[in-house]
Amino acid sequence: MRAADRRQLAELEQLRRAIEEHNYAYYVLDAPTVPDAEYDRLMRRLTEIESAHPELITPDSPTQRVGASPIAQFGEIRHNKPMLSLENAFDEAEVAAFGKRIGDRLRAAGFDAGDMAFVGEPKVDGTAVSLRYEDGIFVLGATRGDGSVGEDVTHNVRTIAGVPLRLRGKRLPRVLEARGEVYIPKRAFEELNRRAAERGEKTFVNARNAAAGTLRQLDPRITASRPLNVFFYGLGEVDGWDLPETQSGILKALQAFGLRTSPEWELLEGIQGCLSYYETIGKKRAQLPYEIDGVVYKVDRLQWQDALGFVSRAPRWALAHKFPAQEELTTVRDVEFQVGRTGALTPVARLEPVFVGGVTVSNATLHNMDEIHRKDVRIGDTVIVRRAGDVIPEVVSVVLDRRPAKARVVELPSTCPVCGSDVVKAEGESVARCVGGLYCAAQRKEAIRHFCSRRAMDIEGLGPKLIDQLVDQDLVRTPADLYDLTADELMKLERMGEKSAEKLLRALDKSRETTFARFLFALGIRDVGEATAVALARAYDSLDSLMDATEEDLQEIPDIGPIVATRIHSFFQEEHNREAIKKLLAKKVHWPKPQAPSAVAAHPLSGKTVVLTGTLSSMTRDEAKEKLTALGAKVAGSVSKSTDYVIVGESPGLKAQKALELGVDVRTEQQLLDWIKAAPE
Ligand code: IVH
Q1: What is the pTM of this model?
Q2: Which of 1.10.405.10, 3.40.190.10, 3.40.50.2300, 2.40.50.140 would CATH assign to domain 328-409?
Q3: How confident is the model at residue 60 (pLDDT cuts 50, 70, 90)?
Q4: 284 catalytic residue (yes or no)
């Protein structure tokens, strides 16, 4: 070999190692150590050398994740060690019985099993896989199948960024089969379904099906485009390596090999420890970026696991303790329409009460008529309802097999169920509206609710129930009337004592001092969210000049298009809106003079183009967009040369790769949070 070739080979190896290190820190430790620009540079250099010398490409090179072409069909893989399932428990008594059973068995076998140690792990709702590494190189990926024979999904497993193509460490086993769960993060799942629905394609019922379906794609390019991830929790066949003595030891060893394990696993003491772990994880469930359907307890000591053995296809030494289901079947008794702030009629399904997600649910939103048609929900239907965390319950789909002959089609009412005004549905819009405006009590209530809300005038203590009473008794017709309320009037209302009346009056008084942007947002102009309100407040130094702005003037503001410009313009032209504003100002609602434009422009994101990819853990995509816009950034949907920053969350998609290729500055969610923190008030 020539010296030059040797040098190149050495560089190649060095590049691959460095990239693997970075991947490990990023995907497994969740703690990037190298700046992204450095990663890009390494990846570009590696691609450059490999395209000049294709003969030097190895299957474990970080460039080789997506194979070239789809496969024709799946091969079969026989598991040398069967892939087992778990016994389920649904309540504490069943968990206690499990503890007693294994304690008795171990003592009978002569072990001193006092308060024994368990490992608690989240039961991630995805699909089980077995990954085979030979001499540290990834060679085979298989699904569980029937437990004995699975399918060969190697081509797809390779595309999962969190799966190392080569294990870390010096002394690697000759054979190591790592078992784990492949999953799709919640937000990625929602995005996948949203896009499928947009294209009129079939949506996945849940994240588990989406993960399983994605892993069973014949074309690895489709798999690569969806951000799957994986947690490893156990071992299959192992050769040429000494097993640790405990399950916790196995989890640590997996992590050290570079195989991602759940950061939520814990070593627990006795059944009491298991039960409190269940509670802790249950509380975290809604915040976790992936779906879990319970926790798994495993006897920590492998020697005891061996002594306990198996019953049919499940180990005696492990138990899945399930959370209450987040999806249940029930029937639709009726569909009623609620009227919102802008007059929008929202259909709500009245359901046969059902216990789901830990609460009894009797109503679920159906969003709009298009949604009813798309899901084909009829009165009398059996439906799947879902309630996850604190999210509003929703109808997922209809069980068509169970549709009764007398099921009734839902019809949009022609008049408002609250005020009797006409209901109109504009061409091409999915939302139907009551034209009653502030004549409609429902719209008045919602307008006042919005005005008082935390992000608007922030009037503490003025909840929906109270607003209902104020409007129903005609004490308040417009927001300005709130400032005329007296303690006597308030004390006549239900559940209002002297103390709370005074407290509310103080809160009202305090709310008079606000900001221009909050005031504009509080007015409830259609399509003017917080970000637009901030943009308006920034562009106009007084309310008068904004009220006199023409549609053309308004369109000059970044991100205000013709439709929103028309809405703003016509809102301020409307005489009763001008009147309502005048009244508010007469009640001494005021705000400081707007900041000098230079102070705003000083934010590092001002005028920058930003693209988001992957799942953010601290906010939704929409929230992030809203915040970025408020900082003066433009949020784009795809990465190009003119992108200034790409912000990556968990399991970033192809956008991150594109950013690397184009050399765009890639930043983490933490950086985003820092930027938001640095924003001027
Ligand atoms: S252990 C020998 N641990 O649950 C025990 N399974 O109902 C084998 N699962 O097929 C399974 N998270 O797909 C285990 N931390 C975890 C798990 C887990 C999810 C799934 C796995 C398995 C199914 C069994």
Answers
A1: 0.61
A2: 2.40.50.140
A3: confident
A4: no
